[in-house]
Amino acid sequence: MKKLIYIIICLASVFLCSCGEDALTPSEPMTFTEFPQGNEDYDEEFVAFYEKYGTQVLYKYSDVDFRWSVTSYLPYYSAEADKAYVKEAWTFLKENCLSIWSDDFLKKYLPYRILLGSKIYSLKDTYQTDDEGNKIYQEIPKDAMYGFNHIAFGAVNNKLTSLTVDKKKELIGEMAFALIGYATSKGKMQIPEKFQTYHDDYINNAGGDYVGDWGYNRGGILEYREGGMDVYYDFGLFVKYLVIMSKDEFENTFLTDEFDNATYYDANWNSYRGYPIKHKYEAVIDYFKNTLGIDLHEIGARISQIR
Fold this sequence. Notes:
Blueprint: H1 2-19, H2 41-53, E1 56-58, H3 63-67, E2 77-80, H4 86-98, H5 103-109, E3 113-129, E4 135-141, E5 144-146, E6 150-153, H6 165-185, H7 193-205, H8 231-242, H9 247-254, E7 263-265, E8 271-273, H10 276-290, H11 296-303
Parallel strand pairs: 1-3, 3-6
Antiparallel strand pairs: 2-3, 3-4, 5-6, 7-8
Helix pairs in contact: 4-6, 6-8, 7-10
């Protein structure tokens, strides 16, 4: 029944997009594979997980599944999981990434699918060509990403069994980023008004939606992203770091005068410090604590102690 409803929603979305004056052209529709995808012990776990949360965990999927959207493809690529490491990946996700959230939270904000991939990446133009004149691109790795109706984990490979402590924390943070980015971009979770205002104001003051790697922090952004920064990605980055850092670690990393260093000018060209990261950080902490009942600093304190 849930699959049928989802298909109807997708078709309705495409129809609505095609009826406007400036109609957008939808990409090819998402495929629906058989579920479960095998007979391993973890397949049984995936069925139980679906019955509890309404979310399918898939380790076989196509490029269309990963990149599909109503109007365009995602600017990321992925390869499906190395099946030899699906069990280890699922254990890691359960024990480290999903466990930081309550059951009620997961039931409310998880997407229809979790995709397990061996890698996720975007492509950066190197402005070089090969001997045949084809552009050469650099792969920029991404551990997790959100799509139209899924989040994807991109570390299901032979490196999973020898993770450093820092890499474990990074994977936890990236999955938190993906979940929150998905939930906010789909309107399941609301971006707090204060954060939206600060995002718009500081991005514009720093040079528009595209903020170069020389000045992303000047726009109140925690990480540089090739190709621009929308509010969902921006908001997700704050959650990413707040769930893997203690309060002191976050403040000593991002709220210093050296990093949170934006200088702006009033109508009389008097300069002043904007502190965009501090304002956005406070908006995120307040929203999670007072609206969602979640203390991100408490989660960060626990995850920061992983050894």
